[in-house]
Design a protein that fits this description.
The complex is a heterodimer of chains A (221) and B (274).
Chain A (H helix, E strand, L loop, with lengths): L1 E10 L2 E10 L4 E5 L6 H9 L6 E6 L2 E2 L10 E4 L11 H11 L4 H15 L14 H13 L5 E5 L7 H18 L2 E6 L2 H7 L2 E6 L2 E4 L10
Parallel strand pairs in A: 3-8, 3-9, 6-7, 7-8
Antiparallel strand pairs in A: 1-2, 1-4, 4-5, 9-10
Helix pairs in contact in A: 2-3, 2-4, 3-4
Chain B lengths: L5 H33 L2 H9 L1 H34 L5 H13 L2 H13 L9 H7 L8 H26 L3 H8 L4 H12 L1 H16 L3 H6 L10 H10 L3 H30 L1
Helix pairs in contact in B: 1-13, 2-13, 3-7, 3-10, 4-7, 7-10, 8-9, 10-13, 12-13
Classes of the chains: A alpha/beta (221), B mainly alpha (274).
């Protein structure tokens, strides 16, 4: 479960004040809103890359706002993915497990399991610099899931993909949702993605969070 | 302009730029050619046969390498901090790091000498005097050569590494931190491997800058033949005793070393780009 209680965030002239919402355990939540409304800022605050100025962030009832990003057990896939360019696909996916001193055999098993699920077995030995957009997205997802995080945060994972790849990735996200059951918060401004994937949808408007049922209309930007 | 066709105008423009730009390339070529024409192979052999010059070459390679390693060490750390973090006093540190670029070399040597040989306010004796009491010496030793070279070369390494880290997208390091890295692990596992070409550049530039260092070495380390003599001071010593052929021969050896450094730089750059 992800819960934000009266969270305030200020970054330069931009600020969010007393944002509250709750993503139930195991559900797939979509956070929608126009560009520049602070969706990415919220994700960065949850994963610890941005300090909040007030309120609490809870993961499964544990307050995490004072923990370092590495202590939060959150899988984060930013919009630009942030793959490690000097590592192979396999090394990228193994990296979080390596940091947790998981044995080489177990790392290999976990990477193989995820590579099968993500259909990227054939890419494991390749460098990440020349992957296509869809392939890179799968690798970033695999890396974020490899250490079995409590929650998964996805920042516009489909926005940079062409239409056919986007459809395939959307199906893959559905499969992952079923296969892993990880609580997921997915940021987008596409109502199609919300319809296809969401168990619950939130809208960020004028610095306030509104649940889908309360929203008067869906947003398309 | 109306009576000139476009093709002729382009040719004229390119010829003008070629003459202006090419004049500098011609000057550098003529400088090297004049040196090469002046010395005979025998002068090289005679210069190389001198034990002082042999020692100078060894001391040069040793001190330049040590100064470049130290410069890279400091340049990587400070370059990363300046590229990634905003903190109180950053502008001041930035200014301090630039000072060796503009400071006259002799002034730098003098400053080093004063730092080591004059007591600091509030202290009864100088650092050198304290070292002497412990049975050690620093000024006028090869250690002083390394410090003199490092004082200037590190500024180049810091600049190079700062630009290198600024060009590397910090996003991967941020993601690494969410995956479980401490800031140090994100630096070691993610940022540092991406800075390989910058590190090679910083090392070679520091090495080349140390090779050309003269003023601070002369003032702070002296130029005792066979002890604190490096190739740049060999040229000065040979000139001062009137053996111009030896001075030019040593100069040309330095030119060859500098070209080797430049080639290393270019080749490593191409390899990493490839």
């Amino acid at each position: 479960m992800i819960e934000l209680r009266n969270v305030s965030i200020s970054a330069g002239e931009f600020c969010l004040s007393k944002v509250s919402f709750k993503v139930p355990q195991g559900s797939y939540a979509i956070l929608m809103g126009r560009s520049g409304t602070g969706k990415t800022t919220i994700l960065e605050s949850i994963c610890g890359l941005r300090q909040i100025s007030g309120g609490q962030i809870l993961l499964d009832d544990l307050e995490i706002q004072d923990l370092t990003p590495g202590e939060r057990n959150v899988g984060y896939v930013p919009q630009d993915l942030g793959l490690f360019p000097t590592m192979t696909v396999q090394e990228n996916m193994e990296f979080p497990l390596f940091l947790r001193s998981v044995s080489k055999t177990q790392r290999q098993e976990r990477v193989n399991e995820l590579a099968g699920l993500l259909e990227i077995e054939h890419l494991l030995g390749r460098g990440v610099k020349h992957l296509s957009g869809g392939e890179a997205q799968r690798v970033a997802l695999g890396r974020a899931l490899s250490f079995r995080p409590q929650v998964l945060l996805l920042d516009e994972p489909l926005s940079a993909l062409d239409e056919s790849t986007r459809t395939a990735m959307q199906e893959l996200l559905s499969t992952l949702k079923e296969a892993t059951g990880t609580t997921t918060l997915h940021v987008t401004h596409s109502s199609d993605e919300a319809r296809a994937l969401a168990d619950v949808t939130f809208h960020l408007r004028d610095g306030k969070i509104v649940r889908d049922a309360e929203a008067t209309s869906t947003e398309e930007v | 302009m109306t009576f000139l066709g476009p093709r002729l105008r382009d040719t004229g423009f390119l010829a003008l730029m070629g003459v202006i730009g090419g004049s500098y390339a011609v000057l550098v070529f003529l400088l090297l050619f004049a040196d090469i024409a002046y010395v005979r192979p025998n002068d090289f052999l005679k210069a190389l046969a001198q034990p002082e010059i042999q020692s100078g070459i060894i001391v040069t390679i040793k001190t330049c390498t040590l100064a470049a390693i130290l410069s890279l060490w400091v340049g990587t750390a400070l370059g990363y901090v300046l590229a990634r973090f905003d903190f109180y006093g950053k502008a001041f540190i930035d200014l301090l790091v630039d000072i060796p670029f503009v400071l006259p070399p002799l002034v730098l040597g003098l400053s080093l000498l004063i730092l080591f040989c004059r007591p600091f306010p509030g202290f009864a004796q100088s650092f050198e005097a304290w070292l002497n009491e412990q049975g050690l010496r620093f000024t006028f030793t090869q250690g002083a050569i390394v410090l003199a070279q490092f004082s200037v070369a590190a500024a180049f390494a810091v600049r190079t590494m700062r630009i290198t880290f600024e060009k590397i997208d910090p996003r991967a390091e941020e993601v690494a931190r969410t995956l479980g890295c401490s800031r140090m692990q994100a630096f070691l596992y993610v940022a540092l491997p991406q800075s390989e070409s910058g590190m090679i550049t910083a090392f070679t530039i520091s090495w080349a800058r140390s090779l050309g260092e003269f003023g601070p070495i002369l003032v702070f380390a002296g130029t005792t033949r066979g002890v604190t003599e490096v190739m740049s001071t060999s040229v000065f010593l040979e000139l001062s005793v009137g053996t111009l052929e030896s001075a030019v021969a040593v100069s040309l050896m330095m030119v060859v070393m500098a070209i080797a450094v430049l080639l290393t730089l270019r080749l490593s750059g191409r390899r990493l780009e490839g």
